[in-house]
Design goal:
The complex is a heterodimer of chains A (112) and B (116).
Chain A lengths: L2 E3 L4 E5 L4 E3 L2 E3 L6 E7 L6 E7 L7 E2 L2 E6 L4 E6 L8 E9 L2 E4 L3 E6 L1
Parallel strand pairs in A: 2-12
Antiparallel strand pairs in A: 1-4, 3-9, 5-6, 5-10, 7-8, 8-9, 10-11, 10-12
Chain B lengths: L4 E3 L2 E4 L5 E6 L6 E7 L6 E7 L2 E5 L6 E5 L5 E5 L8 E8 L1 E2 L2 E2 L4 E2 L3 E5 L1
Parallel strand pairs in B: 2-13
Antiparallel strand pairs in B: 1-3, 3-8, 4-5, 4-9, 5-6, 7-8, 9-12, 9-13, 10-11
Classes of the chains: A mainly beta (112), B mainly beta (116).
Chain lengths: 112, 116
């Protein structure tokens, strides 16, 4: 069975600094998708970035980028130039056929 | 704005009662999935509906059931409510094409269910 592990329950970063959130996963599949979702206090799950497993190039979306290490089954999220609006719960997730498997999340605090 | 809307936003029910939660999927999407998010946890997959039929189910008992309508909207029904059913219920819509699921799922804001 696929699992997603986020080992950092909470993290803090100074505004304008860079922070990296960690995620590991376990799967026997070769073709899959990985995601980072952001959940602010409004509760809506917002897709931040996605990575297709067959692509070796790391995905980038503006200030957000990932470090995808397929052999190590690692998928970390780097947030550059952190902003107050980045404060939220961040979930690492794996798409397995018709469902998405989420980690337990990392709460990110932005310090002004 | 993702276009996925859920109702109601908050709900309080008594143990043993039944509840129905509703979801309108994003325009153009034909698949709806439901997730349960307990406090402090990541969402857990309940089930998915495609072409008005259940298309996969997570580890939830039969008292969790659903429907999908011709306009792709969906309902989640929970019978015989238990205290542990208190959670945020999230609906997500996406597009299923042949045997390959679209990669992206768009979520609604959820329904906060409290069972007392």
């Amino acid at each position: 069975a696929q699992t997603v592990t986020q080992s950092q329950p909470e993290m803090s970063v100074q505004e304008a600094e860079t922070v990296t959130l960690s995620c590991t996963y376990d799967t026997s599949e070769s073709d899959y998708y990985l995601f980072w979702y952001k959940q602010p206090p409004s509760r809506q799950m917002i897709l931040v970035i996605r990575q297709e497993a067959y692509k070796q190039q790391n995905a980038t979306e503006n200030r957000f980028s990932v470090n995808f290490q397929k052999a190590a089954k690692s998928f970390s999220l780097k947030i550059s130039d952190s902003q107050l609006g980045d404060a939220a719960m961040y979930f690492c997730a794996y798409r397995s056929s018709n469902k998405i498997i989420f980690g337990k999340g990392t709460r990110l605090h932005i310090l002004p | 704005e993702t276009g996925v809307t859920q109702s109601p936003t908050h709900l309080i029910k008594t143990r043993g009662q039944q509840v129905t939660l509703r979801c309108s999927s994003q325009s153009g999407h034909n698949t709806v999935s439901w997730y349960q998010q307990a406090l402090g946890q990541g969402p857990q997959f309940i089930f998915q509906y495609y072409r008005e039929e259940e298309n996969g189910r997570g580890n939830f008992p039969p008292r969790f059931s659903g429907l999908q309508f011709p306009n792709y909207s969906s309902e989640l029904n929970v019978n015989a409510l238990e205290l542990d059913d208190s959670a945020l219920y999230l609906c997500a819509s996406s597009t299923y094409r042949g045997n390959r699921m679209n990669t992206e799922a768009f979520f609604g804001q959820g329904t906060r269910l409290t069972v007392v």
